[in-house]
Amino acid sequence: MKKQTQLLFIIFILSIFCTSLNVEALSFKKKRKSKKPDTPLMLKDFSHSVELQTSNDESFYELTLPVEAYQHVIHKNLSDLRIFNKAGQIVPHVIQEFGRQVEKNEQWVDLKVFPITKEHEIKKNLNGNEQGLSLSVKRDVNGTIINIDSVEQENKDNIEVGLPKTTITSYLIDVSQIKEPINNLQINWKQEGGSFVKKIWLEESSDLQNWTTLVQQYTLAEFEHLGHKVLKNKFNFRNQKTNYLRLRWSSADKPWEIVSIKTRHVDTVIYGKELIWSEVTALKEDKHYLFNLGGYYPVKWIKMGLPEKNTLVNGTLYHCNEPCKKWHYWHSGQLYRLFQKGLEFETPQIAHYGVASKNWKLEISAKEGLSIGAGMPIIKFGWQPQRLIFLAQGEGPYRLAVGNKRAAYPYFNVKGLLSKLDLPDNKLPQAQIGTFTSLKIEGDVTQDPIVKKAISTPTKKIILWVVMLIGVGFLIFMAIKLMKQLNEKNKD
User: Fold this and answer.
1) Statement: 276-383 belongs to CATH 2.60.120.260
2) Residues 3 and 489: beta-carbon distance below 8 Å
3) Cut 0.90: pTM above it
4) Could you confirm whether domain 107-265 is CATH 2.60.120.260?
5) What is the pLDDT of residues 343-376, one digit of tens each?
């Protein structure tokens, strides 16, 4: 009877011990999940800051975010960016895009194209200046050109000989009926076999007399390399509202027959901020290449550069953010760097309208047995800095601060306030930016204190389970020993 009492006592102690350990584990887990009470952010809580100087007594100021802001910010959505006044108070701000392209109702528009021959060209005058084209233009009721004819030159001795009168020297493109500014062309030509490479010039005019160059020596091409077809027949240029375009080439080149010329039209909103191009060399890891852009830049275009000439491979690009736990697919296709007739052809840039990504990975397809050769590829990225508007609350100077893991995205609704006040938000006074400085602070503001504490969690958890298992094992051993003793007593 005494042995049975001891066994029941051990089982009771075992249950209490397991319950206490379970409660301790749950409380420990609860402590880990509990958040630190919200405390107002202060300037010293950020890793980097820069002084902003304001000259006028205005309500709102604007500035272009400097490159250092994207390098030192921790969150990809810039949620850890704040503006402080002289008293250390946070003032409202809003971040906007300088320029964005909204692609909807996209359509390709066929343009009216007319071949220009030697008979249409006016020769140079006594001063050596070109006088434009000698054309007799016929238009329809809408003003669109429907036919052009040459006009006799008064001084026939000036007409250049050596080429037939019907030789095409350029193409005239009528864009007078295009209401929006034009900024791109697609050229389709008649391929007569073999490779095609030609350098072209594009000019614009409103009166067919005075011409301004838009594109110089752009290379159009169509050829095959290692069984892969390379076609380069599209190009972009600055926005232009004009009546006519002229496509020409070197007089030493043979004439060519154009089948059609088109322009791609999309609804656009453009503020005119220029792209900044940067590049990063890859780091090789196993069978792929890694790139770190060094910041959360608002990237608009991506372009890959290969180290060796005459290289053509199939590649796939992935991206992720820190901590990089999962790679996300972005693009796959041909990557090339080719030379044809003394001209270099590279993979064209690709539009990137996604979230800001710091890390990129390039994988080369091994199916064809091709490689990029010696050296490392580079990734070129064109990014557009954003515009920051802030309310000049309190006294200056003001400071822009970035770099805090705990900072959540602020909702100041400055944009709504600007619209209610009917302020010219595109012509606000500029705030002058100083030099970024690193703040001397205790600890690492780039890491949440909760995250720091979690670093030691695996060790504590292991110790807790080891103690629990040892205790349970000892109690089980005692229970088995008592059971054997009871069985032996019953046999006797």
Assistant:
1) yes
2) yes
3) no
4) yes
5) 788 888 888 876 688 999 999 987 777 788 888 9
